[in-house]
Amino acid sequence: MPSKRKLDLPPAEIYKVAKLAANGSRHIGVEEEDNNLEGSPNPPPEDDNGDYGPSAPPENDDGDDEEGRFFGGGITEQEKEVLDFMDSNQQSAVIDATPETINASWLKKTALSFEKRISRNAELRAKFESDPSKFIDSEADLDSAIKSLSILSDHPDLYPTFAKLGSAASLVSLLAHENTDIAINAVEILSELTDQDVSASESDWSALVNSCLEADLLGLLASNFSRLDESNESDREGVYHALSLLENLCSSPPICDRVGSDPALIQYLLSRIAVPEPQITQNKQYSAEILAILVSSSLPNRSHLTSLNAVDTLLQQIAPYRKRDPDKSFSYCVEFIRNSFECLSSLVSFPEGKAAFVEAEGVELCLIILKDGGPKITKPSSLRLLDHACAFSREVACKIVNGGGLKTLFTMFMKNKTSVGATTEHLIGIFGSMLRFLPGDSPERIRSLAKFVERGYEKLTRLVQFRREYAARLEIIDKSIEEERRALDREEQEMMEDEFFSRRLDAGLFCLQTIDVVLAWLIAEDDGARDKIRELLADRDEDFGVLRKTIQEQIEGIDEGSEEGRETKEMLSTLAKFLV
């Protein structure tokens, strides 16, 4: 995971922090440009230890004057006694200032004080509703009590006790406080306590968070989003802390699903990213990031967001950049666009999302971005999005062909001179999906096959070239894995299977398999392509057997527990019969 983001401070706030750190005071400091001004006292000598002013009297100074009023240091005997008394009190105060032990006993006292201040403030607010001066002091005390809870983040082992005492629920209840500053401070503390940087165990973190959720944390967060005005700096920071808290909650998959199923929260996030802004702000970008997190690994969240028209909303945010790149000088703009694409790529990975993508003309938008001379930053994300949308979708595959996408995609493919990189992987993925899902004998399929065989079969030559590059990299990894296997017993080999498979994927196993499926389709459907592929493979003393071996490996790895798996196995088994 990336490191925790920090709230951006405006220049004035940064200056204030710097001055406080440097001077230790809120008073404005004045620099002396000339230390030798006429009439000013001379500076102390450099070898002086800084002990200026009148010296203290010696321990046994008997140098009082005739009337016995003054000692050598210029103070009376009575004043000396007073100073000695004050010194002794200060020393005892330092001894008593030993930091208090933070434990369960301390927490109980702190929680009791916290509850009393909540009750006192509520009582005075109810009694003097029309006279804020009567309850302003209690509000300040409550604010201090909230901020004092921040220390708990250094002692997460106390979270269960904090929750059991009811203080976590009380803290959450302050999100409904009439004073938005109190509510914002409560949100900020909750964000600190649940932060991923806090070294809390899963059980301690869950004890706190579950208590907060039971106190209607999500509902109160949604209501706060609706009442905070981001034109106000304090409210803008409040929205940031609330989004930060949501991100923390989403680190738990079950709670992530719960957040994603909350209509008010999702509606807010979608409406927030749709707010027009001259330059993308931090909170708009953060909202897009939260949406991307919500749908990254949760099917229920994807379904819920799609039902709320999230696909169309996100495409509208991308559309202004279909022919131009976002301004790189504004980092939030680039991040916002990437997170919007990330969210869309997750949404179009299931049927409802694909249908919404087609209806909102997402295919056409991606093809515009992918055209030669289009924006460089959004182009890779658009290609990835189109690859995800085209997988297992006849409708998207047809849209690509009818939208003029064949020329765009094959031009990109032929300009790409190497198999290394995501561009080649996504293009091959799209070709594989089109050959599998375009209807047989349909105009779209015939046009696609024609593209592969035109211009002297140049696309087939490039495909075989890429296949060799992937196969060479995979061969090196396979040899390395085989050497490791010989040093392991059977049980150890089984434990390492996932690791070995991951290494093979990194070396290009999936791309090699996809290329071989594409070549198998072309062999099965076009005699000219069949002869050309046989000729290209023969250049390296290879034949269709290398393709059949890869496809057979895919067949053996398919899980037949789903309808999709069974259909894939049937398709691959049929293709394998043509590779003889």
Automatic annotation (TrEMBL):
Could you list this entry's UniProt keywords, alphabetically sorted. Answer: Coiled coil, Nucleus, Phosphoprotein, Repeat
Q: Where in the cell is it found?
A: Nucleus
Q: Which PANTHER family match?
A: BETA-CATENIN-LIKE PROTEIN 1, BETA-CATENIN-LIKE PROTEIN 1 NUCLEAR ASSOCIATED PROTEIN
Q: Which Pfam families match?
A: CTNNBL
- Provide the taxonomic classification: Eukaryota, Fungi, Dikarya, Ascomycota, Pezizomycotina
Task: Write down the SUPFAM superfamilies for this protein, in alphabetical order.
Answer: ARM repeat
Q: Which residues form the Beta-catenin-like protein 1 N-terminal domain?
A: 78-187
Please provide, in alphabetical order, the Gene Ontology terms of the cellular component aspect for this entry: spliceosomal complex
Renumbered residue ranges of the record's region Disordered: 22-72
Name of protein? Catenin-beta-like protein
Q: Name one GO biological process term.
A: gene expression
Keyword Nucleus listed = yes
